Amino acid sequence: MPVNRNALLRYKTIDHCLCNRYRQWTLDDLIEACSDALYEYEGIRKGISRRTIQLDIQTMRSDRLGYNAPIIVVDNKYYTYEDPDYSIMHSPLTEHDLDELSGAVGVLKQLVGFPAMAGIADLVSRLEDQVNLATANSKALIMMESNERLKGLNFVPVIYDALRRGHAQKYEYQSFRAIKPSSFVFYPYVLKEFNNRWFVVGRRKDNPKKLLTLALDRIGSIETLSDEPNNVPKNFDAEKYFSEMVGVSRDLSSKTTTVKFWASTEDAPYFLTKPIHCSQTLLEQTDNGEMLFEINVIINPELIRAFLGFGPGIRVVEPVFLANSIRKRHRDAADGILRNSR
């Protein structure tokens, strides 16, 4: 069972008291010490009951948290450790603890390349070293997608901090189509990761009616404007905004459309186990395993690229304009390959 922060603080305080052999500690002394610690570190003024500290001592004595603390009562009044060298801070990790910690280190290692986690890189390395020494296991058992060379990652914590503090920012930005970069004041609403790239959604100060999605790898520089407030509209629902599409690109005037597509016998299982969109439903299945799916989405470039990625494995049937667009792209790609091979 997870232990909350306040309980851990009480355990550490009781431990600190009992390690001090130059004073005798009554139950009331321990209650007072824990109350002072909770006020100092957490700002909690509410007193602690005798029952709470008694249960804490009982927990520390047990193996529930792996402490097995040798707490005894002297003269039916004073609490102390029977072993003068004992401390819960010196308690060895159990095999279960090491197993859980090893898994946690594996996940943390994948996050070290993320700028916001840069401060823990050394801590993770030291923690991994200690776990490996204890378990004699240094193999990576979990791998998460990451790209440390991706441009713009350094801007994630900068934008996040501005979002948290409610500040506008000034961007130097150059889209792939622009000849040169431009500078403008931007009101960020939310950060979004898609396909291992980062984007920020918001509005320009000089065009507040248009919601934009900017790729962080196209940002040249950012200046946070601490004197320019960023008031995200209360009616902006980031989850709803992104739930209506695949990816990040959309026009606010766009409406969701019902899209139907057939998946081949080979590719249908992929759509079953990993739906292309949360609205996906199975409408029909043939005897040979082909499946007809339906999704309700805003049609955008990311959706089209997702369909194109399956090549002949999918066939869009509705809407007709989307089916024709994908068919033309496949035909153009084939024509291009044929021309280049001549």
Concise structural overview:
Helix content is 37%, strand content 23%. With 342 residues, it is an alpha+beta fold. The N and C termini lie far apart (68 Å).
Structure description:
This protein is elongated. The relative contact order is 0.06. It is built from 10 helices and 11 strands. The chain folds into 4 domains: 5-90, Arc Repressor Mutant, subunit A, CATH 1.10.10.10; 95-135, no CATH class; 153-243, SH3 type barrels (Roll), CATH 2.30.30.520; 257-341, Alpha-Beta Plaits (2-Layer Sandwich), CATH 3.30.70. It has helices at 5-19, 27-42, 50-61, 95-111, 121-135, 156-165, 238-243, 268-273, 301-308, 320-341; strands at residues 71-74, 78-81, 167-173, 182-194, 197-204, 207-215, 219-229, 257-263, 281-285, 291-297, 314-318. Helix content is 37%, strand content 23%. By secondary structure, the chain is α+β, with helices and mostly antiparallel strands. A 5-stranded antiparallel sheet has the order 6-5-4-3-7, with helices on one face. Strands 9-10-8-11 form a 4-stranded antiparallel sheet. The protein has a two-stranded antiparallel sheet with strand order 1-2. Helix 1 (5-19) packs across helix 3 (50-61) and helix 4 packs antiparallel against helix 5.
